[in-house]
Amino acid sequence: MLRCLGIRVEAREPAPSSGLLVCNHLSYLDVLVLAALTPVLFVAKSEVRGWPILGWFARLGGTIFVQRDRRSPAVQSAQQIEAALRTGVVVVLFAEGTSSGGETVLPFKSALLEPATRSSHALTAGLLQYYLPGGSVSEEVCYWKDMTLVPHLINLMGKRGVRASVRFATLRGGSANRKELARQLHSEVLKLREAPAMRAFEFANGH
After folding, report:
1. Which helix (H) or strand (E) holds 21?
2. Structural domain boundaries of the chain?
3. CA-wise closest residue to 79 among 119, 39, 109
4. CB 145 within 8 A of CB 99
5. Which helix (H) or strand (E) holds 163?
6. Where are the alpha helices (DSSP H) in 6-161?
7. pTM, two decimal places
8. Residue range 115-164, pLDDT digits in tens
């Protein structure tokens, strides 16, 4: 799908091979980009299940669907995350709880981080960014606000030169308190965003 869309992926560090990967969230493209780098399972909001094409791929890929506004399903999802982590697979969590236009990284929600506080699973922070020459990343690549999937995807398919950049940082000594762990992971993502290479990437992107 990335080839069809003409999107090139750049990763400065090797992707993790196991554990929980916590990333910022910009677009439905995030799923394609990370899945192209390493075999992963995603945690996604339940609405994604019904999306055209992407929802079908999500179901085939074993995505863990979460109803974020209800506590009992969230507890069940945390148990599913724990079970997946025990198999040695990489589980991807977009901890902002929603996507954004990329100008900032929203605070991380902690509800689904409980499995990471009770075990020795590897923890990795990930930063996703996009570059679109002659266009607006916020409006034409990022998928957020009240955007509609099909028109957004059709417009994106007409773009050329889209690049995705991914950086990873291993979190060592993560807190056993899930709220503190959320702050630690958020801080790691911000550090990646402020790294010289990423600042140059943002400058080229017009941010």
Report:
1. strand 19-23
2. 2-204
3. 119
4. no
5. strand 163-170
6. 29-37, 54-60, 71-86, 114-117, 137-140, 149-157
7. 0.89
8. 899 878 999 999 999 999 999 999 999 999 999 999 999 999 999 999 99
